[in-house]
Amino acid sequence: DWVTPFEQDTGCKVNIKTAGTSDEMVSLMTQGGYDLVTASGDASLRLIRGGTVQPIDVTRVPSFANVDERLKQGAWHFVDGKNYGTPYQWGPNVLMYNTKAFPTAPKSWSVVFEEQKLGDGKSNKGRVQAYDGPIYLADAALYLMKKNPGLGIKDPYELNEAQYKAALDVLRAQRKLVGKYWHDAFVQIDDFTNEGVVASGSWQFQANILRSKKAPIDTVVPVEGATGWADSTMLHAEAKHPNCAYLWLEHSLNPKLQGDLAAWFGSVPAVPAACKGNKLLTDEGCARQGYNDFEKISFWRTPVTQCKSQNNACVPYHKWASDYIAVLGGR
């Protein structure tokens, strides 16, 4: 639906992948056939380091000048002094909760990581969820940064072996509390509606839909902060339609498109001008969906061995992936 008006206006056709898991994005782009992909930070560095995408010439994207300054050199797409992506949308991984179970907003992520009685007097066991992607290890690491500062975690995506083990231990303990892991947003909406789930890391998208149905739902960024996602539109290294792809990159930064998309997905536009005057988003939409929480967010970034905070001795993503599968299996 987004591409059709673009095709009508420009006469161009591009092949773009805009949705899917990080592993799907990497796999499909590696196979070829796409000109562009919108990738979150848990996929973008893999695409860059794998040579699957090429640097963006931002002089060919005039509206890049209008991108939020906080995003222009995001570590998930700006590498070795080059932009490998055009910022698209972003948002925090908020703590979504049922206000009947929490008469007072939860202050800490402990409500999903540690067994405890909630505000309604009942245990959280079997009533909380966790995201089923390996990048969720960073949520545990972020929690430990405040709970156990002695571990010395400085960046939830840069973990040495001891820090990584501590994060895994948090997730193994959490496994006893989680009734069901989530990945599909609409399935999570049903779980909060019909399956008794009362707290989980989530996206504003789910919360907005639940609220529209008058469900007793609210969201918060707890005291530890939150992880978050920032999608970048990236150009395949062997794109068959590069000129049209650049026209799409320019089109994607149109304030009305940015505002409409943010209103639909519950995200924050990459272009601040989209935050005002959009009928769907409203002038309060950006603040409601996390615009002012930017400094509290540790944005998804592919973990690599070569890391600054741990003297280039961090646990890489492939280990996160294999160990998280084990956690899901109860090991």
Describe it.
It contains 12 helices and 14 strands. The mean pLDDT is 93. The chain is α/β, with parallel strands linked by helices. It starts with a helix and ends with a helix. Helix 2 (22-31) runs parallel beside helix 3 (41-49) and helix 5 (137-147) packs across helix 6. Strands 1, 2, 3, 6, 12, 13 and 14 form a 7-stranded mixed beta sheet that branches. The protein is globular.
Mean pLDDT comes to 93
Alpha plus pi helix count: 12
Radius of gyration: 20 Å
> What is the string of helix and strand elements?
HEHEHEEEEEHEHHEHEHEEHHEHEH
Oligomer kind: single chain
Strand tally is: 14
How far apart are the termini?
43 Å
* Shape label: globular
Strand percentage lies at 15-25%
Which spans have pLDDT < 50 for at least 5 consecutive residues? none
Which class of secondary structure composition applies to the elements?
alpha/beta
Biggest pleated-sheet summary: 7 strands, mixed
Q: Percent of residues in helical segments?
A: 25-40%
Q: Concise description?
A:
The protein is an alpha/beta fold.
Q: Which tags fit this structure?
A:
single chain; 331 residues; alpha/beta; seven-stranded mixed β-sheet; five-stranded mixed β-sheet; 14 strands; globular
Topology:
Layout lengths: L2 H8 L5 E2 L4 H10 L4 E4 L1 H9 L3 E2 L23 E2 L2 E2 L2 E7 L1 E5 L11 H4 L14 E4 L5 H11 L13 H14 L3 E5 L2 H10 L4 E4 L1 H9 L4 E4 L5 E11 L5 H11 L2 H11 L2 E2 L15 H4 L8 E3 L17 H12 L3
Parallel strand pairs: 1-2, 8-9, 8-10, 12-14
Antiparallel strand pairs: 2-12, 3-12, 4-5, 6-12, 6-13, 7-10, 7-11
Helix pairs in contact: 2-3, 5-6, 7-8
